[in-house]
């Protein structure tokens, strides 16, 4: 009862939404990592094509996010998320029948549409419309739970695939969307939009004007938008690319494969720990200053690593600190737009920000694969530092703008 009242009576629903995040991300974004071998053996899909499905998912999300955002601000999220769950189920069912690269990649367009309607930004908008001033903490907790999706679905996918094959595994995932996810989405309260400058979600009576319209002055909103987009797109280009190649970078610097793999496994716990700290203590600090710290720590570490002797302890310290920086930035990416621009039009703003961010995310794996192969570890780290430094400068300019405002 205490936990439920702490979350405005929405405790059980939030637990259900946390479960839908694990199922949604685990069955779509993370499943190809386990299915890749079977897809290669049975229908001849190489790793580039298999993970190309994720690229299509991200690009599809970028293309439809602005339009979805406008609908979410006007109608709330329940209908969109319910439709999205059905579309995800359909996409997974189509994926289970793939016979080659064309049908495989086409199914990811369907999954990408469902993903954009029910996960990604939509989940954060739901929390904002339900939780009001407590949005930042709850989003942080939700992202903490989402970080468990791979830990749950990698072994689950492997068990199902070994028992029933990859096609039936995807059918099971499709059924989860209809049997588990859809009823939870249907339990989201109906959202009554009140047009006009004083609009406020009905779940948050008495919300402050700053919370409703944000901390950025009206005449600065366009500049603030592009600074946020630049900061998070630059950091996302690195965070979605560099971690995929850390094992290779550590091996090139002198660690054995076993040592490099062991060190790389520290990334997940460090990211989760940073998100947990931000979720519990972050409300005491402004979101843009937390993001600024993460954007400073990341490039500093990438700049420093090539100049220190590579040992297991050095690599471990880099992974822990770098992953912690990425953890707080990922939370800020979801919560900073709310602090800057307010709940009024929050979904539309997230939708617009998704376009440059998802384009950067989708390009990152291939870009870093090329850099690691052609330029080597040290140059890749230097370029990573430079890209993140662009993000830091943009965020620093944003902090100055907010302070002046």
Automatic annotation (TrEMBL):
Pfam families on file:
MFS_1
Organism of origin? Bosea robiniae
In terms of PROSITE patterns, this protein maps to: MFS
Annotated keywords:
Membrane, Transmembrane, Transmembrane helix
Q: Where is the Major facilitator superfamily (MFS) profile domain?
A: 13-403
**InterPro entries hit by this protein:** MFS, MFS_dom, MFS_trans_sf, Proton-linked_MCT
Respond yes or no to whether keyword Transmembrane helix is given for this record.
Answer: yes
Q: Which residues form a coiled coil?
A: none
- Name of the protein this chain belongs to: Predicted arabinose efflux permease, MFS family
The transmembrane segments are 12-30, 50-69, 81-99, 105-126, 138-156, 168-188, 223-240, 290-309, 315-341, 378-399
């Amino acid at each position: 009862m205490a936990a439920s009242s702490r979350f405005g009576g929405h405790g059980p629903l939030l637990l259900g939404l946390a479960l839908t995040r694990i199922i949604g991300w685990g069955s779509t974004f993370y499943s190809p990592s386990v299915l890749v071998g079977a897809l290669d053996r049975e229908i001849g899909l190489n790793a580039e094509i298999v993970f190309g499905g994720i690229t299509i998912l991200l690009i599809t999300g970028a293309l439809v996010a602005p339009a979805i955002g406008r609908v979410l601000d006007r109608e709330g999220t329940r209908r969109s998320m319910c439709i999205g769950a059905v579309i995800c189920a359909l996409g997974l069912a189509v994926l289970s029948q793939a016979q080659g690269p064309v049908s495989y990649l086409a199914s990811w367009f369907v999954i990408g549409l469902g993903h954009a309607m029910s996960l990604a930004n939509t989940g954060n908008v739901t929390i904002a419309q339900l939780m009001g001033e407590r949005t930042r903490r709850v989003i942080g907790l939700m992202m903490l739970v989402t970080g468990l999706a791979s830990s749950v679905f990698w072994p689950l996918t492997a068990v199902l695939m070994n028992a029933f094959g990859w096609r039936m595994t995807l059918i099971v995932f499709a059924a989860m969307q209809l049997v588990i996810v859809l009823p939870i989405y249907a339990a989201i309260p109906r959202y009554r939009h009140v047009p006009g400058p004083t609009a406020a979600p009905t779940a948050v009576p008495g919300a402050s004007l700053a919370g409703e319209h944000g901390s950025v002055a009206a005449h600065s909103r366009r500049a603030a938008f592009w600074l946020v987009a630049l900061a998070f797109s630059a950091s996302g280009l690195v965070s979605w690319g560099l971690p995929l190649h850390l094992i290779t970078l550590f091996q090139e610097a002198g660690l054995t494969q076993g040592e490099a793999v062991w060190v790389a496994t520290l990334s997940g716990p460090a990211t989760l720990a940073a998100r947990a700290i931000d979720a519990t203590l972050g409300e005491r600090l402004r979101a843009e200053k937390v993001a600024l710290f993460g954007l400073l720590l990341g490039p500093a570490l990438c700049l420093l690593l090539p100049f220190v002797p590579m040992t297991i302890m050095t690599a471990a310290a880099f992974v822990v600190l770098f992953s912690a920086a990425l953890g707080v930035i990922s939370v800020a990416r979801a919560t900073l737009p709310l602090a800057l621009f307010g709940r009024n039009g929050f979904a539309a703003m997230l939708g617009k920000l998704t376009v440059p961010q998802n384009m950067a995310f989708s390009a990152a794996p291939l870009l870093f694969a090329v850099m690691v192969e052609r330029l080597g570890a040290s140059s890749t780290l230097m370029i990573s530092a430079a890209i993140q430094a662009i993000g830091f400068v943009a965020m620093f300019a944003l902090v100055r703008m907010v302070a002046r405002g």
